């Protein structure tokens, strides 16, 4: 963890927090901190700054915090992702938060196994926990929003055209004629399919909703690798 | 697996292979193949093509193969990587093979824990297995070369200058003044440090060996994420 993230409940005064659990353990075991030390802190969805350890025991850490720095800018990116298998989903949540994705939309697709939607990683508390791990890594405080769309057709027909209008809207699709653009630095929507790809019906529907198919070369990447490689190329 | 990779030992005739073990199981369980089916095949470090299943039993698969297609081009990239922790190392081997890295050099660094060098994933058979998994994913046949350099100073002083001369040589280093270039498409050497980064002495030595420090923005990425994001940006 490169940043100690603070939640509203941690504050015992305007400029003081008390921590227990995972973050306390981390201060002891990884930072090997002691009273008087300073650590980087940030308030979830708020400012970042410095925390001075007033007290550090086996039971709790008490810090005086000064929050005066803005978190890094988010990428102007909405990632529309076919729901991945649970273990990969967990890592992708962390990657998205670390890389600065602004919004993640999880969509159904023909090749998404029904069981993927049953994973406990989709519970709000677990989504939040994995996003926080990604933010701690990146030194960011602002949580990406996560939206769950379990029905492909109503979402793509009724909601996607409004999301994709007036912004760069791309569909990562191996074999398409156009290479993925680079260094776009503009509001972008990027759709990435499941392992095995979108089926032709889905590609048609996504194109009808305004998305332009682009490829990333001859190699077939795993979804997780494609997410990071495409973001590295686009921004 | 998007490509069935064939080893020299698999060939029972010039155009015929017999498979057992993991690949046989994959044909049964994932492809749900039967005699007469065609699958994509490739010879390790050789050509790709098509395999016709002549026979498929619980014990073995016999295929007639026709190898007439070149594998995709490798990236002109030597990745110089501080030895990562074992679980991440295993995934990075797969990513490197999938993304088309030509050469991977594993280097020691002050922040590499000694225990990382003890991992069984460094045994040649295990390195090869994970690279093959990455090639199968990408549809490539050519194994990246992997070189192990357990001593930082002799390698960086005596061997690195020759490797870095006349090619684009970059040192990924958060906080440096220059942003990582994009779309370079030329022979490149890229050094990526351990979690926590290279220490100042190492940065000095790497710069003295001809590497130029570049950054990838304000966010601190995990090594695994940095490898893929940087490759996505460079090529």
From TrEMBL, chains A, B:
Compartmental location: Cytoplasm
Protein name: Ribosomal RNA small subunit methyltransferase E
Pfam families registered for this protein in UniProt: Methyltrans_RNA
Primary site of residence: cytoplasm
Classification lineage: Bacteria, Pseudomonadati, Pseudomonadota, Gammaproteobacteria, Pseudomonadales
Example of a GO MF term: rRNA (uridine-N3-)-methyltransferase activity
Enzyme Commission identifier(s): 2.1.1.193
Domain of life: Bacteria
């Amino acid at each position: 963890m490169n940043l100690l993230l603070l939640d509203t409940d941690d504050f015992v005064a305007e400029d003081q927090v008390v921590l227990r659990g995972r973050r306390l353990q981390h201060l002891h075991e990884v930072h090997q901190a002691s009273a008087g030390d300073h650590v980087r802190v940030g308030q979830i969805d708020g400012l970042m700054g410095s925390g001075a350890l007033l007290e550090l025991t086996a039971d709790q850490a008490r810090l005086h915090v000064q929050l005066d720095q803005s978190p890094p800018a988010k990428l102007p990116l909405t990632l529309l992702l076919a729901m991945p298998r649970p273990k990969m989903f967990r890592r992708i949540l962390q990657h998205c938060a670390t890389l600065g994705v602004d919004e993640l939309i999880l969509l159904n697709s023909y090749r998404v196994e029904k069981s993927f939607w049953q994973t406990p990683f989709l519970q709000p508390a677990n989504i939040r926990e994995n996003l926080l791990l990604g933010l701690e890594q990146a030194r960011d405080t602002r949580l990406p929003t996560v939206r769950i769309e379990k029905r492909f057709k109503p979402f793509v027909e009724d909601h996607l055209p409004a999301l994709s209008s007036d912004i760069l809207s791309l569909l990562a699709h191996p074999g398409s004629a156009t290479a993925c653009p680079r260094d776009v630095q503009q509001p972008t929507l990027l759709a990435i399919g499941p392992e095995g790809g979108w089926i032709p019906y889905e590609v048609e529907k996504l194109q009808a909703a305004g998305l332009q198919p682009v490829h990333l070369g001859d190699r077939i990447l795993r979804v997780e690798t494609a997410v990071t490689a495409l973001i590295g190329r686009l921004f």
